[in-house]
Amino acid sequence: MWPTTVLLLLLPHLFSSTDTGNNTNFNQSEIVNADFSDAAFKGQKPHRGVKDRDTCSIPCDITVKLLRDEKHSVCGQLQQSLLAFGRSTRKLIRDVMEEQQKALDILSTQVTELMTKVQTLSFEVQRSNTEIFSMKHVESHGRDCSDIKDSLVSVVPKIPSGIYIVHPENTDSSFEVFCEMDYMGGGWTVMQRRTDGLTDFKRPWIDYVDGFGNLAGEHWLGLKKVFHIVNQKDTRFQLHIALVSHDDITSYASYDDFKLDSETQFFSLHLGRYAGSAGDAFHGYDQEQNQDTAPFSASDVDNDGCNPFCSIGNRTVESCSTQHNHTGWWFNQCGLANLNGCYEDTEKNQEQRMNILWDTWRHNGVPHSIKSVTMKIRRIVTNN
Fold first, then answer.
1. Looking at the chain, which runs of residues are DSSP E strands?
2. Is residue 196 a contact partner of residue 346, using CB atoms and an 8 Å limit?
3. Class in CATH terms, 145-380
4. Domains of the chain: which residue ranges?
5. Global pTM?
6. What would the pLDDT profile of 281-339 be if each residue is shown by its tens digit?
7. Backbone angles phi, psi at 147, to 5 degrees
8. Rounded to whole angstroms, what are the CA distances from 93 to 38, 98, 101, 236, 262?
């Protein structure tokens, strides 16, 4: 059976068509009288009045046209559906992107707020630190470690070693030092310590003047600070050098009078009489090796007396600091001592005189390989 819509489209053609079997013209009333009720359309049997009537046939060209029209209709509906689906998909993508952008905006705002809080906190910490350091000046514990020991010995049963604040006479500032209170009666101010090689002593002049390192570990106190300590009024200081080799042999060298000149004289060294078991490497074996009264030198400030060069063995040396791993010391044509040398235990460096050097401390004619060294100063009791 044809759908109702198809039959309605065929009506004009049926009105003009003829019955090929009987050559009888159909008029409108006859067609109307035909039983095209809803029951027929729904597959029910026709009334008896049209029982013997021949079923009409539809020409092929009309069928093709109907199918084409139906296809065009279906295609149109499909195109409309695709367009609607595309519009809904684009809208969905646009909505998702908008939601993602909103989430990113919220996240960006939260990050900005967090950064602002961090900056504010950092500013508060800096301000607190500034307030702490701008507070009233901390009172020093004494003029030097010897003075601290003398002032505490009567009230403290055992004075601990550690970091103390000192304020030498005739100076405008206080600074921290490490005081050894257990070694040989205590009262020692440590001016240099090498123990593990963690602090690099390859430094320029300004670092040796101001000091560097960790006071509780390896460090160089600073020429300016040592100058202020040892040049106090009516004082004399002893210099003590404690040495330990890589095979754990200990030795020492001591000088009963130790002073430094001012910076304008490059902190020239002045030593008194020697005592000890490591040999007098500072004075050496002859005047050319004598480092007493020598000014301090560094890689960028050359006062070593090698003009234009020095001869050490079969080698020509233009700079003792460069020869000694760019470290600073009281060089005099290089000499026999440099306790700031390279912290390594290699035969090659021993030959090139780069290691921590105290050449007069020997075993079977060969200088000991030094593992650790401490330079410390202490007041000497005077009659003044």
1. 162-166, 175-180, 188-194, 212-213, 219-220, 236-245, 250-255, 258-260, 269-271, 274-276, 310-312, 315-317, 337-338, 357-358, 362-363, 366-367, 370-380
2. no
3. alpha beta
4. 4-58, 76-135, 145-380
5. 0.64
6. 999 998 888 999 999 999 999 999 888 888 777 788 889 998 889 999 999 989 999 99
7. -65, -40
8. 48, 8, 12, 88, 79
